[in-house]
Amino acid sequence: MPLAIAIIMYGIGLTLRFKNFKRVFLYPKPMLLGLGSQVILLPVIAFLLAWILPIDPLYKVGLVLIASAPGGTASNLVTAMLKGRVALSVSMTSFNSFIILVSIPFYVSTALYFFMGETSEITLSVNQTLVEILETVVIPVILGVLTNEYGPERITRLMKKPLRVLLPGLLLGVFAYALFFDDVQQSAEFLGNIELLIPLVFFNFLTMSVGYKVAQLANLKVRDRYTIAVEMGLQNAALAIFIATQVLESPEISLVAILYSSFTFFSTWGIGWLMKHFPHVFDRSLISLFRRKS
Question: How far is CA 82 from CA 88, 103, 107, 200, in A?
């Protein structure tokens, strides 16, 4: 699976040049806004929804956990498929993967105390996180960019066309393996808890809409808006499942991440496509509607 993810990120790197990342850091407003939305707004929305929903407290913790996870390979690939700002998406994924060393322990510990009255010491390995993000995201993307910048143009062009089909297929293969062939995840009784899907689908749409709206209020371009929205909609479910099963030792908590990852690739792509092609629909707000009526 790490090899498959690295191949996907290499393919994404083939669509980029170093000037794309240079622009992200010269004009950091979209990245800072996106990171703030991910690190602060996303968990806050999860806490509020978990507080309202009449579900098992373990599932409430699971909702906060998946919201605390950073964007993953899927968000970068969906952004590439939508022709969004891929360099912005990759940069947000990379930076948030380090922020979670602090944010995940804080949010999950708070959720355990608030919803279950339990205290738990949660720690993430700095070295392991650093190695994983370098091996699966940073280095493959850099190699892809180097190939695009300095490789033979004809070969690079020939590689890009089949990768448009192969990369989504490879990622779907990874999802299928994780959902249906991993014994640890099967123990969470995936098919026996479909009723959780409805609030999770609503959560996916809500978080993407909030991400888009925040970017709109900051006067960012439509391309930046749906890029940030996609990053809000797709989280690193594999990391959330690992923390739930290995750190918290709770298949029930992991179930939320399993269910969420089963549909968000498709729903996030669909919502992102609508945001790209019909931005005027998402640009409207309740406030503007009330003003028109008055």
Answer: 13, 29, 31, 23
